[in-house]
Every structure is written in C-alpha cells, then in structure tokens.
Amino acid sequence: MKVFFKRLGYLILFGILIILYSTFVEPKLLRVIFHDVPLSKIQGEAIKVVQFSDTHIGDFFTLEDLQEVVDKINEQDVDLVLFTGDLMDNAANYDGAIDEIAIVLSKIKSKFGKYAVFGNRDYGGGAERFYEDLMESAGFNVLLNNHETLNIKGTTLSLFGADDALIGYYDSVQTMKGIQENHLNVLMLHEPDLADDFINYPVDLVVAGHSHGGQVYIPFVGPLMTTALAEKYVRGFYEINRDMNLYVNTGIGNTKAPFRLFNVPQITVFYLKTK
Fold first, then answer.
1. Fewest CB atoms less than 10 Å from the CB: which of 168, 171, 216, 254?
2. Which residues cross the membrane (predicted)?
3. Partners of 238 in the beta sheet?
4. CATH topology assigned to domain 2-274
C-alpha cells in the first residue's frame, strides 16, 4: 500500500510539473526553425523567406512578446516576410492597442516586402473593421484572393494570398487568376487543409498556419486536438503532389487555453534555392 501511494504521489507531482511547464514555460519560448527548400524555378541566388503566424495577441500573448518576435525576425536579415493570419485572439478586447500593434509590426525589416493574409480571428470580434488598415500601416501588403509578382535575386516570384475560408470571402479560383507556370509560385493560406483546392495549379510552395500544431502535441500520437480546416494537415511539411509542398507553421500564440506542450512557438525561415 505504501508503494502504491508513493507512486501515486510521484504521478501527481509529475502532472503538476507538466501543467506548470506547459502553462508558464513553453508558451514563452520562441525558436527559429530553418528549412532548405530546393526548387527548380530558382534562377539566381537563394531567397530567404520568414513565415510567422497566429500570434493571437491577447490574454496569453502581449505586445512585449510581439516585440520579441519582431527582434527574432530582424536577426534573420530576410528577403521576404509572410504572416499567415490570426493577429489578435479577440479583437473586441483590444481596440485601444491597435496603433501600438502597428508600431511594433512596422519595425519588421524585409528587403523585398512584407505580406499578410486574413485569418478567421482577423474577421471575428470586429477585427474585419481594422485588420487590413493596421497591417498596411505597419508596411504589410494584405493579399485578398489575389497576387503580386516580384523579381527577387534573378527569380520571378508570384506570391498568392487566399482569404480566410471560415469567416472570410475565400475564392480559390479568383486567387489563382493570372498564375504562370514558369514563375516560382508561392501561396499563402491561413487554413492548411485548403491546400487540396490548389492541387491542379502550378503552385510550388504553400505556407499556412491556423492549426497551432494542436497546441499540445503528444510524441508518437499527434495533436491532442485539431480544428476545422486543420485536421488533415497539422504541422510541418507535406507533399501535396509531385510539384507542390505545403508547410504548416505551428504558430506563436495560444487560443482558448494557455497550454503548449512539445510544441514550442516558432518562426520559420525558408531558404528557397535551386535544385
């Protein structure tokens, strides 16, 4: 009986430590992940791209935390910055912080531009009224079912951005208008499961967020929970077809609960280089 209670005590202690770690330690960590992405359409030097996603500014993520993200991004000295949505957790609670958020985001440096798409949280809670203006005042171009073509280090890169599909005005056909097969085509989504809608287009790389990697990710098991349009593709790289890869960023902030476990907040740096 003593052995039983001793083991029970250890289990309870271990559980308390896990809760404390996943609430107060791991969510405050921030790591930069690097990936080489070989692409046959790269014509010149490698292009360095950073993606960040799902900051969810709110109860679990402050402006000070956002400044840390900005500092980390600027340390990378990148060519292109991509934000794949969900800036605030509940915009209705943070009307007074809009200008401050824009000021912090405006400090992000990028040689060839900063781009963003809407996430579902960028529509909800009244965020639709100001998200686009906020991001543009911070120097971001917001893509809404459209694209821009850039010439970066000898490569013609077309950057496509689809609108949010849960609350927004998502239109995959409109998004792909004007796509050219000989361009390096990069697609920004918020919800990763939408990648399947683009399987017949000459898209080379898709980047998405939304999933948070489940927030709690159990090794050898998977995410504790998934969310709508992030059930098939949850985190990391996926081969959608022979020519198109999807990368799902697990994001930075939290929603609904403060926990993160085996799922450190991340900024991702891609080196797009010739095959």
1. 171
2. 7-24
3. 246
4. Purple Acid Phosphatase; chain A, domain 2 (3.60.21)
